[in-house]
Structure formats: C-alpha cells, structure tokens
Amino acid sequence: MTPALRAKLLDRRQRLERALSESGPLEDLVLLVQQVDQALARMDGGTYGSCRVCGNEVEEHDLAANPFIEYCLCRLSPEQQRALEHDIDLARRIQTGLLPRQDVGCCGWRSHYRYRPAGPVSGDYCDVLTTRDDSGDLWFAVGDVSGKGIAAALLMAHLNASFRSLIETGLPPEEIVARQNRLLLGSDLPSHYATLVCGRAMADGRIDLVNAGHCAPLVARAGAVAPLPPTASGFPVGLVEDRRYEVETLRLGPGDTLLLYTDGLIEARDGDDAEFGLDRVAALFAGHHALPPRDLASRLLDDLGTFLGGMAATDDLSLMVIRREA
User: Fold this and answer.
1) CA 234, CA 257: separation in Å to the nearest integer?
2) Which of 103, 136, 203, 274 lies at 20 to 30 Å from 312 by C-alpha?
3) Which residues in 235-270 are b (16+ Cβ under 10 Å) and which e?
4) Which residues pair with 124 in a beta bridge?
5) Could you tell me the sign of the dihedral formed by the alpha carbons of 288, 290, 291, 293, in that order?
6) Ranges of H-type helices in the chain
7) pLDDT tens digits for 111-165?
8) Confidence check: pLDDT of 3 > 90
9) Mind giving me the DSSP string for 145-167?
10) For residue 196, what are the β-bridge partners?
11) Inter-axis angle of helices 27-45 and 2-23, to 10 degrees?
C-alpha cells in the first residue's frame, strides 16, 4: 500500500505547488505542503504508519483514509473506544440521510448515482435534485473534499446545505460555485477545500456546467466519448478568495450521456499497484453509453470490482450518470 500512497502524496504535492505558483504563498496551502512533506519524510525514515505514542502500526484502513495520520487508538480505554465507535456510526447514518433520492428525473433527463465511502464516512459530495414542483431544471453536483474522515464528512455536509439553499435563490451555476467558495473561506475550516462539478440540465437539452478543479467529466455523443477540459477559472472552492468561475454550455441530444466521478474511480489500484485509469473508464463508457443510467453505473462498478480482484478500496468513490432521454 505504501508505494500507492507515496505516489498519491507526490501527486498532491505537485498540485499544491501549481496552486501556490498561481496564487502566491497562502497559509492553508503552505500548511498542506508541509503535511505532505512530513508524511514523505516519515516514509523515507521508515516510521510511516507507526504510532508516535506507542510505536505500534496504525490500522491500514485508518492510514488509507488519512495518509497524514500519526496516532492509533492506544490512549483510549475500551469504554472510550465504544463511545467513539457509536459516534462514528451515528455520523455514517446522518451522512447517508443527506444523500439525494435515487433515479431523479425531469424535463427529459434521467440520473443515477453511486456513493461508496472507503471508511465509515466519506469526503465525497454527491447531489441531484429538481425544483420543488419537479417541473423546472435538473440540478446536480459531484465533489471531493480534501482530507478524509469526520472532518471531510462535515465539510461534505456543509456543501450539501449550501448547494441546496443557493439553488432556491435562482442563481446560475457559476454564481452558486462562487458563493460556495466564499462560504467555505468564511467558515474557518483549517486546511480543507473541495473540488466540485456543478451543473443544471434544462428541458431544451442544454447543460450549464461549472468545474472547480474537479476530474474532467466525460460526455458521450452518438457513441463518441470525450472528456470536458477544465476552464482556466476552475480552481477548487475554499482556497482562494474572489474567484470568478466560468460556465460551459453543452447541448445533448436524445441518448447522449454525461458521466461525473471522483478520483476514487480512476485512481483505484489493484494488487500490482496498477491504476484503473481514465482511459479504461472512457472505453467502458463508450461501449455501454446506450444503457440506462442505473445499468451503466453497475457495469462500470462491476468492471472495477473485477479489476481490483478483491483488493479493498483505499479512497471514497462516487459517480453520477446524467442521460438525455429519447
């Protein structure tokens, strides 16, 4: 597991360096770079994954959920551990309750999503809804919060509340994302940000899409699949003040499909440390794009399960299919 985590930490550091070069030395970005460097130093020194208090190995699933972790539960009594387990289970049930209803559709669109936490709770964000009378547009969002565990899950809940509240104001997607950025910056949550794709699908086949530093969505038109390149303004929410986000307008015809996902899908690794990868996802999408959204999602996840060959997931995974119906 360590080679995969090391590769992921190095990739995260490169992204942070690019962000620093574009925006200057921001305090939260500098702190994140320092955390990555400290984790890499522990790997080089042979102490990565060892508790700093008792020296025992940190549980693999805890380390996978938070690669910066430096402690196990050695200081907790059995009663305290049971109380912690109860709180985590309650957090899991609350987060499950925040997920949208399944197979939402309106105005000629149909959706389906899958939400798979790697641990008890997830830092992924997934939402899809219509206006109150179900006669308006179809709104959707998929995001990935930096970090893992309870802190990331709390920020996911923050995104959920703000997204749903802002939709009721009638704002366009680009302004909704800009306001979410300002809300996160004003929340004093330390060293946490989120990548996010937010969109609105309309009755005439148009989709207004805003990508705030997230994985490039894939669109299938007549069997041809292509990623949507990020815009120059696509910066994660919660990092930089006064960001202006751009909207990209797509037009999908009957049978065309949009696929959104988090990096837990494309960065999943098998026992040989091979990555599932975007090319494989795009090929599967091209071959099965005509399936209904629920069946397409199942086909993607079935192929992922075969690829992993029994290996446990080390990152949260979410995907969403938005299809223009005939």
Assistant:
1) 22
2) 103
3) bbbbbbeebebebbebebeeebbbbbbbbbbbbbbe
4) 144
5) positive
6) 2-23, 27-45, 60-65, 78-98, 149-167, 173-185, 263-266, 278-288, 293-308
7) 999 999 988 888 899 999 987 655 579 999 999 988 777 778 888 888 888 999 9
8) no
9) ESS-HHHHHHHHHHHHHHHHHHH
10) 143, 212
11) 150
Q: Provide the residue type at 4 as one letter.
A: A
Structure tokens, 38: 């400290």
The conformational region for residue 216 under phi > 0 = left, psi -120 to 50 = alpha, else beta, is beta
SS3 at position 251: strand
Q: Collapse the DSSP code of 134 into the 3-class scheme (helix H, G, I; strand E, B; otherwise coil) and give the result.
A: coil
Complete domains list, the chain, with CATH: 2-65 (no CATH), 99-324 (3.60.40.10)
DSSP 51-91: -TTT-PBPPHHHHHH-TT----STT--HHHHHHHHHHHHHH
Q: Dihedral of the CA atoms 151, 157, 162, 163 (nearest 10)?
A: 120
- Amino acid identity of 181? N
Task: Tally Cβ neighbours within 10 Å of residue 297.
Answer: 20
3-state secondary structure (DSSP) of residue 136: coil
Q: Which residues contact 282 (CB under 8 A, 6 or more apart)?
A: 218, 225, 227
Task: Find tokens 């192929």 and name the residue.
Answer: 303
Q: Residue 25 — pLDDT band, cuts 50, 70, 90?
A: very low
Residue 57 exposed, middle or buried by CB count within 10 Å (0-12, 13-18, 19+): exposed
**177, amino acid identity:** V
24 alpha carbon, distance to own chain's centre: 25
User: Could you give the percent of the chain with pLDDT greater than 70?
Assistant: 81
CA 56 to chain centre: 31
| pTM for the full predicted model | 0.77
Tell me how many degrees the CA angle 114-120-122 measures, rounded to the nearest 5: 50
| C-alpha span between 18 and 292 (Å, rounded) | 39
Cα 153 from Cα 93, distance rounded (Å):
12
